[in-house]
């Protein structure tokens, strides 16, 4: 196995950037999900998991690192992330602030994604609050653990583009590798170049992969196929449709496109 592609998302729920290499520290991918939009009314982190309010974020793109992170709006305007509050509030129809500080216990709204598929993106559904970054130290706005991986075996089975699942690392698997093989990697050290990761959870899937991503149309199969073929127990969350794998960083360092991937 080897690394097929590497991805970083400087602003949570926006499209990100494809890179030749990533640097990892014990908090995850440096520069990943360092910014997020916060709903000024409720103080909740904006995420397209709640498509009724936030799906337009997936029409925006973010790139860069540190204070140089830039946001490209759907109309083509490019803005510094730290000064994009006004234009993003206008786009979303809700007042937001762009933040680099993840509050303790920060939460997002997460309606049941299968109900979203059944009843529509604008349906007024119950939206339980989910605390983010429960498996991540530091202040990045990741969903759970520091790093997210998915294999080409799983992507080929589902039949969607990798970017819909928003992984950091896409792993090429040999011909004949079963889909959802990531389930079998839990608890086994994962070595990528000089970096060691420890898998923590299968990745539960939400509404995000089914939504429009930039110019890409909706893709309901990105949820339906995992729901049909890979409902698994996710510790602390129940039995959920999953695709991919979360991991924590045991040994930090750089990883590069083409690096070998080994399972302990």
Automatic annotation (TrEMBL):
Alphabetized GO MF terms: catalytic activity; molybdenum ion binding; pyridoxal phosphate binding
UniProt domain MOSC: residue ranges: 123-264
Pfam families: MOSC, MOSC_N
Entry's transmembrane regions: none
Protein name: MOSC domain-containing protein
Gene source species: Pseudonocardia ammonioxydans
Lineage start: Bacteria, Bacillati, Actinomycetota, Actinomycetes, Pseudonocardiales
